[in-house]
């Protein structure tokens, strides 16, 4: 596992070099002893594989805003949210996957990923998790449209910086079940299913289209939900528990 020079090493060096003279106990206790060696892999560190769209970023809201601004969607229209695939919900100005991809690609060209709103409370909650020694690894499937990857990656990084969201890794993949973590957070029914099938611990981020899943779930990024996440890092609930 790579060690971030920006986040980890300066803090460790600070504590190692001035520990005996330091009076700032808050800073000296930033990384507890058991988390100082980040070479221990996912079994020795709190690793969070974190989805973006529908969990941290309001993708559907941003796409809707784009379509309204371009006159192809009624500003009073509020599409249904019963299905994960947007084109399967009534209220959108597209009916097929191909039409949806065309709309997405056009919006992406106008920096959809750099300008969308975060889901309320997400930046603050993620900073709280990072302060509590959670290794945040962004895992997103945003490269599902070819030809615009440079923009998708750059805009994603810009958006994360704009909102002050801390992270140690930024991974672009749709094969989420290929990446281990202590805890995953996702909203996609197919991802939740695939990850649980290989024994990974998934917290469902509540959305109308994933109501049929049992098990650990958070409804928002409130402090109580974030604290619950921290508790699950230490003690994963037994099967059937954790429904919030
Ligand atoms: Mg998602």
TrEMBL record:
Q: Which Pfam families is this protein grouped with?
A: NT5C
Q: Which Gene3D superfamilies match?
A: HAD superfamily/HAD-like
What InterPro entries does UniProt report for this protein, alphabetically?
A: 5'(3')-deoxyribonucleotidase, HAD-like_sf, HAD_sf
Query: Family assignment?
Result: Belongs to the 5'(3')-deoxyribonucleotidase family.
Name the UniProt record assigns to this protein: 5'-nucleotidase
């Amino acid at each position: 596992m790579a060690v971030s020079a920006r986040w980890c090493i300066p803090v460790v060096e600070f504590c190692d070099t001035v520990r005996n003279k330091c009076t700032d106990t808050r800073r000296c206790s930033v990384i507890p002893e058991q988390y100082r060696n980040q070479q221990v892999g996912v079994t020795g560190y709190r690793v969070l594989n974190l989805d973006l769209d529908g969990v941290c970023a309001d993708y559907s809201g941003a796409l809707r805003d784009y379509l309204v601004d371009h006159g192809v969607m009624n500003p009073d229209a509020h599409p249904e949210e019963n299905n994960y695939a947007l084109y399967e919900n009534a209220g959108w100005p597209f009916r097929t996957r191909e039409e949806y991809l065309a709309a997405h690609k056009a919006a992406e060209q106008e920096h959809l990923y750099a300008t969308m709103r975060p889901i309320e409370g997400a930046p603050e909650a993620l900073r709280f998790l990072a302060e509590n020694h959670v290794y945040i690894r962004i895992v997103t499937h945003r490269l599902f449209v070819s030809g615009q990857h440079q923009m998708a990656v750059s805009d994603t990084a810009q958006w994360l910086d704009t909102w002050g969201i801390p992270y140690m890794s930024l991974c672009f993949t749709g094969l989420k079940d290929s990446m281990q973590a202590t805890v995953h957070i996702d909203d996609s029914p197919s991802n939740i299913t695939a990850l649980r099938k290989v024994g990974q611990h998934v917290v469902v981020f509540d959305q109308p289209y994933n109501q049929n899943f049992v098990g650990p779930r958070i409804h928002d990024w409130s402090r109580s939900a974030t604290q619950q996440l921290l508790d699950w890092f230490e003690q994963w609930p037994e099967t059937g528990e954790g429904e919030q």
